[in-house]
Amino acid sequence: MAGNARKVRTGLAGALALALALSGCGLKSGSPMADDVVPGSVGRGEPLHGASLTVTSKNFSENIVLGQMIGLVFKAAGAEVLDRTNLPGSISAREAIVKGDADAMYEYTGTGWITYLGHAKPIPDPHRQWVAVRDADRRNGVTWLPQSTLNNTYALAISRRNNAKYHLRTLSDVAALSKKDPSAVTLCVENEFASRDDGLPGMQKAYGMSLPASNIKKMDAGIVYTQVSKSDSCLLGEVFTTDGRIRAMDLEVLVDDKHFFPNYNAAPVIHTKTFDRYPQIAALLDPVSRKLTTEVAQSLNAKVDVDGQDPHEVAKDWLIQEGFIKQR
Fold first, then answer.
1. Cα angle 152-59-141, degrees, rounded to a multiple of 5
2. I need a labelling partner for 270 at 20 to 30 A (CA). Which of 27, 186, 227, 298 fits?
3. CA neighbor of 268 nearest in space, from 118, 68, 84
């Protein structure tokens, strides 16, 4: 997931324009959701009876699971649902919503603000970031529903085993350790994070760190988790806060106490014409979003990325467990 999530957050203007052009032909794949689900705490009275709706997602585990949740809720509420999740790249999913080729998906506030709307600086307060994205994206025919606290952003993590010695809790603690004992702070990161302004260089500047180049090791994202968990070559590693491997590998995420990293809170986005026709969608999805936390995402992502479960079944099991829908 991490590598795909990283692609969401890059997007230079030229690449974005190219992707938009390539995605202009619309969606050509998908299959009907055939699940025999009925309302639980949401969807009573089947307010979407007679509706035909298409759900989409990007092509990494977390976003697929979230897209499946939307589809299952719509299905339980009486809609016929076409599943077009797992689209390659974030731009194709975005364009599907903008053009009306798809009706709903979960998007991330930081991605909307930075990648799609072209702002260089994120807004530190999560609610203000969501409000700004919601208001600015209206002109594109996209309606943002209230966000979850699920925040898929950058972070540094340490193994619980190693942290028994250092007792690090925040990135300010890391900065203090780097000054007290420079050789102790070794860091494993992806190449891109090592050079991005919203990655390692910006983080060091924000926290007053100056790590020697010899203390920084660059590698593939998946290897970072393994190295931090099982070796002594990296005290700390770059992670994504909702990655299932954090729990599976017994890692502790350090608090970004100066709020340097952008907020990537997940929120449902709806093609505005669809929302105008079916405003009841908000009442269906708001309770689900309120239950989606970073910790919940870690658990669900681990079921897919660590245990190898099917994203659709992971989404359905969670919705049933939480009482949102029922299996007939």
1. 80
2. 298
3. 68
Return the pLDDT at 89: 80
Residue 294 structure tokens = 């970073």
Give the pair of three-digit tokens for residue 66: 């979230």
DSSP H/E element including 231: none
The predicted model scores a pTM of: 0.87
For 16, 245, 251, 315, the CA distances from 186, given in Å and listed in that order, are 35, 20, 16, 37
Q: What is the pLDDT of residue 232?
A: 84
Residue corresponding to tokens 């050789």: 183
Q: Helices in 77-125 by DSSP H: which ranges?
A: 90-99, 109-110
CA atoms within 13 A on the CB side of 133: 34
Tokens, residue 17: 């324009």
DSSP string, 51-89: -EEEEE--SSHHHHHHHHHHHHHHHHTT-EEEEE---SS
pLDDT tens digits, one per residue of 251-277: 999 999 999 999 999 999 999 999 999
The DSSP code for 149 is S
Determine contact, residues 279/118, Cβ cutoff 8 Å.
no
Rounded to whole angstroms, what are the CA distances from 76 to 32, 48, 203, 220? 14, 9, 44, 40
Four-residue CA torsion sign, 190, 196, 198, 201: positive
Which tokens in the block code for residue 211?
A: 């790590």
| Strand 142-144, strand 266-271: pairing | antiparallel
Residues of the chain with pLDDT under 50: 1-27
- The predicted pLDDT at position 29 comes to 65
**62-102: pLDDT as tens digits:** 999 999 999 999 999 999 999 999 998 889 999 999 999 99
